[in-house]
Amino acid sequence: QVQLVESGGGSVQAGGSLRLSCSASGHTYVRNWVVAWFRQDPGKQREGVASINTSNGNPFYDVSVEGRFTISRDNAKRTVYLQMDSLKPEDTAMYYCAAELQRGSSLSPNYNYWGQGTQVTVSS
To answer: N or C: which end of the chain has fewer CB within 10 A?
Structure first.
């Protein structure tokens, strides 16, 4: 069993930055996982924003965040990060991390493990 805990959310003004962390605990942490960040506003579908292969570090981004967000990992700390720069009000959402992709695109919500989320609010 794996537990994922997100942290680092908060309130910032447009143009600001935040760094989210996703820490994995439990007896399993696979160094060949896909780990992803998703976000969701109330009443909207959960959307994938970035993913990373924990083995080779290859990132993948949704077009809405490419060039502004950076995903990275530290396997020794069992943690995946999401550095968010040049934040916009439309980035406001609950952000979730997910691990162990079942099938399909790494930005589809087909993951075995999910965290509880951390809120990001960007004011104009």
So the answer is: N
C-alpha distances in Å from residue 95, one per residue of 27, 30, 48, 80, 81: 24, 22, 10, 13, 12
Q: How far apart are CA 90 and CA 100, in angstroms?
A: 28
Task: Specify the amino acid at residue 11.
Answer: S
Chain center to CA of 76? 18
Q: Stretch 100-106: mean pLDDT, rounded?
A: 89
- pLDDT above 90 covers a percentage of the chain that reads 82
At 82, the amino acid letter reads: L
| Residue 27's pLDDT band (cuts 50, 70, 90) | low
